[in-house]
Amino acid sequence: MNPELNQAIDFDRVLEQIGNYASFSCSIEKILNSYPLKDRMEIQNRLDLAKEAMNLIQKGETVSFSGCIDVSQSVKKTKKKMICTPMELLEIASFLVSVKKCKEYLLKTDTILLKDLAESMDSCNSLIQSVQSKIDATGNVKNDATVKLKQLYKTLVDTRLTLNEKARFFIKKNANSLMESMSTTINGRLSVLVKNQDKNRFGGMVHASSQSGLASYVEPECF
Fold it and tell me: Percentage of the chain surpassing pLDDT 70?
């Protein structure tokens, strides 16, 4: 836009005022980067869309944009064949759910142009289902997201059970050398609190000392 004309009519300030009414970051960005239209048919189409939207508002109806967040950076990553994090995929699914709700709402109205706009929206149901079946609400990959992952998780659970059983047997057998009758995890390793005079008795690794200095956290060789 011609800088002199922009300054003369304060176009940027007008866009800022309009942008203050928008709640979605992408909408605000689009408004602030708008230019005056020149094509008469396009101008009339935009006005007709705005009129239908205003009529809905005047009837007390509103479209919910809950869950509608800016996922443009994540989408750019996918276009470049880059890997998205589970949270990024969850955000994409949340955005698509919002689009789906908006589409379903508009299709139930008595509008014409807004209905046509809704028809053009792709809900991407298969993508939503795929993401939600593999990633939980906290953004973590589910243990059964794939057959292989499910098998690995079962193996991990079985291994932990076996390790805990070994720890219980060790504690029962060597209670006189221990300061506590329970196991603990030090730096991700299952350990027991052994009296210092016996810390080298069971082989394995010494991971840390107790606060009193009278005992050490040991991962026995039999673990």
Answer: 98
- Please report which confidence band the pLDDT of residue 170 belongs to, taking 50, 70 and 90 as the band edges: very high
Buried/exposed code over 48-82 (b: 16+ C-beta within 10 A; e: otherwise): ebeebbeebeeeeeebeeeebeebeebeeeeeeee
Residue 32's contacts (CB-CB under 8 Å, 6 or more residues apart) are 15, 16, 19
Tokens of 90: 């969850």
- Contacts of 85-89 with C-beta under 8 Å, sequence gap 24+, read 85/139, 86/135, 86/139, 86/140, 86/141, 87/139, 89/131, 89/135
Q: Quote the CA–CA distance of 159 and 26 in Å, as a whole number.
A: 48
Confidence (pTM):
0.70
Alpha helix (H) ranges present in 3-124?
3-9, 11-19, 25-32, 40-58, 72-79, 86-107, 113-119
Whole-angstrom CA distances from 95 to 41, 64, 133, 175 are 31, 12, 16, 56
191 and 185 Cβ atoms separated by less than 8 Å = yes
Task: Compute CA distances 48 → 23, 53, 55, 124, whole Å.
Answer: 22, 9, 11, 28
Whether the per-residue pLDDT at 5 is higher than 70: the answer is: no
The per-residue pLDDT for range 23-38, each reduced to its tens digit, is 888 889 999 988 888 8
Q: What single-letter DSSP state applies at residue 122?
A: -
